[in-house]
Amino acid sequence: MHYKLIDATHPVIIGEDFWHRVTGFPNFYNGLVSELQNCINDLDTKDFIKKGCDKLAEEIRNSSLFNFQ
Fold it and tell me: In terms of pTM, does the model score above 0.70?
C-alpha cells in the first residue's frame, strides 16, 4: 500500500521496466534473473542451515552484548 502513496508524488518503477531504465538494456532483467537462478542452482546447500546457525551461535557467544555466565 505504501508504494501507492509514493507513486502519487514519485513514479514507482519495478521489475523489467526498472532495470531497462537503469541500464539501458531492454533484456537486462531477464538475463539477471537467469544468472541468479544459475547461481542458486550451483549453491552447495548441504548443511547450509546448520552452518548458518552454528555461525550465528558463535557470533552471539563472542558478542559483548550478551553475558551467559
Answer: no
